[in-house]
Amino acid sequence: MRGVVVPLVTPFNEDYSIDFPALEEHIEHLQKVGVHGIFVNATTGEFTSLSKEEMKLLAEKGRELVQSAFYLVGTASTNTFEVIELTKHAQDIGADYVVIAPPYYCPLSDDALFKHYTLIAEKTDIPIILYNIPSCANPLSVPLIKRLALEYSNIAGIKETIDSINHVRDVIFEVKGERKDFKVFTGLDQHFLNTLILGGDGGIMACANFAPELHLSLFKAFEDKRFDDAIEHAQKLAKLAKVYDLASSFGSAIKLAMDLRGFSIKPVLRPPYLMDGEDVKEKIKGLLKEVGLH
């Protein structure tokens, strides 16, 4: 798995129920444009606002719909045994990978985090993508990532949603350097090209929900060694990533941008999140215009 992986939004109706027709339409569109992976129950998918049963239901529905891309399922929880249950479920339905963020809310040591991932890795066989998102959960240090990667062959890679190219560099050089098949993905649109240049494998980036053509153009230009084109696309992505600064949450930013670009995803977030209003929508509209997205 390399390239552009999309952490899907979860579409909701006005009554906060899951909008399955919109989900199907969105997945079909992403496969049509040629993304390399599709990821349900992501941060962008508001997984913390979903019940365990809904996470399983979304995983099953996504497995039915995703045919031409790698299929990833988020199975994170603050409860280790719930993570194991969700991960076994993803394995049973035939997902290609699970993505597991560390427990959030309670600060944990590297030894506690190692125990958490050890229990999951020993009780399941599906390839696991670690998810480092220190703004929302316990951070994963480079020594911890290395220890997990070298001790468990089914810990297959990491998504790095961290605004530190030095950290990503260290993971690529120190972990992937020793275990060549270990995948390193950025979670930040503005670090997509940096990560590829350093030897990473791609990105799992939320803006690809509404602008996958830009991410795909960058990746193809990089693969084809058309570096001037890759730099041009990277500069647009870096500017586009400012969308997160304009809104109150990832979900609000992405769903407003999708609404502006004509996707059928309703601008609805589940509480406790709130959608931003027209003032923010107008700012996002201006940003999209700046990068040539209408």
TrEMBL record:
UniProt cross-references to SUPFAM superfamilies, sorted A to Z: Aldolase (SSF51569)
InterPro entries, alphabetized: Aldolase_TIM, DapA-like, Schiff_base-form_aldolases_AS
Keyword hit for Acetylation: no
Annotated active site: 131, 159
Keywords carried by this UniProt record: Lyase, Schiff base
Residues involved in pyruvate binding: 44, 204
Signal peptide location: none
GO molecular function: 2-dehydro-3-deoxy-phosphogluconate aldolase activity; 4-hydroxy-tetrahydrodipicolinate synthase activity
Gene Ontology CC: cytoplasm
Alphabetical GO biological process terms: small molecule metabolic process
Main localization category: cytoplasm
The keyword Lyase is annotated on this UniProt entry: yes
Location of this chain's protein in the cell: Cytoplasm
Assembly and binders: Homotetramer.
Protein name: Lyase
Species of origin: Palaeococcus pacificus DY20341
Lineage, broadest ranks: Archaea, Methanobacteriati, Methanobacteriota, Thermococci, Thermococcales
